[in-house]
Design a protein that fits this description.
Elements (H helix, E strand, L loop, with lengths): L14 E4 L2 H4 L4 E5 L11 H13 L4 E5 L4 H13 L3 E6 L10 H8 L3 E5 L1 H5 L4 H10 L6 E2 L7 H13 L6 E6 L3 H9 L5 E6 L6 H13 L6 E3 L13 H14 L8 H13 L8 E5 L7
Parallel strand pairs: 2-10, 3-4, 3-6, 4-5, 7-8, 7-10, 8-9
Antiparallel strand pairs: 1-2
Helix pairs in contact: 2-3, 2-7, 3-4, 7-8, 7-9, 8-9, 10-11
Amino acid sequence: MTSLDALRPRLPSPLQEFVDDRFARSGVRLLLKRDDLIHPELIGNKWRKLAPNLTAAAGRAVLTFGGAYSNHLRATAAAGRLLGLPTVGVVRGQELSDRPLNDSLARCAGYGMRLHFVDRSTYRRKTEPDTLAAILRAAGAEDAYVVPEGGSNDLAVRGCRDLGAELRGRADLVALACGTGGTLAGLAAGLAPGQRALGIPVLKGGFLTDDIRTLQHRAFGGPRGTWALDDRFHFGGYARTAPGLEAFASDFEHRHGVPVERLYVAKLLYGLVALAEEGAFPRGTTIAAVVTGRPFP
């Protein structure tokens, strides 16, 4: 088994209250669950999802998947460097192999991750056994431990249950931004009866409800916890932003002195402010918003 001592996480992550007039007007308390402070490089849900998978890898190379700006690829590469594990990142977009690496992929390569680019059609079929086997062969990683895109598998979902457990009795509603749904699936399972979880998807499509149900069934044998999604705040999809979102995030940083990651956390906080202004939360509600990342330097 692989020891994770070298990663030195800060757990449980801090829970901090922030007074914001946009919530106070509605009689709502805002807490931030600072999962961005768990580890300087395995930030937030990346630690919670990767840690059990790195243990299961038991010293083997780790192969995983992501787009050109994937936080998950960066976190996996960082973990590999810290633990001395070889890592392979399968990147969506064969055309990217002929271009200079962006800052995110350059960081992965700098951490020692070997990047393997595949065309978008192949990438869409990456979970099919024959396609996955072909990718592993082409990447020279037939014996690698495979972690899915976003890190969301049974082990990851069970790892994220600890996040819910850390928030038991601390808030009425726990909210977070969702990519693949694994963090929400585990978080909801760890909350106490009477607590609710709200997911703000950052991708378009409305497919996450079924994905989260499937993840919970695989991890726990059936549904767990009370959770819901609000699909209105994706701003066009993953890695998409807008001037209004940028202005909102900058204002939040100025008000509270907290760095706001744009692709996930900004959409979460924007959605919560909008919902508060709509009167979606009963007076007296305490909301814990999970900060799952921070701006990439």
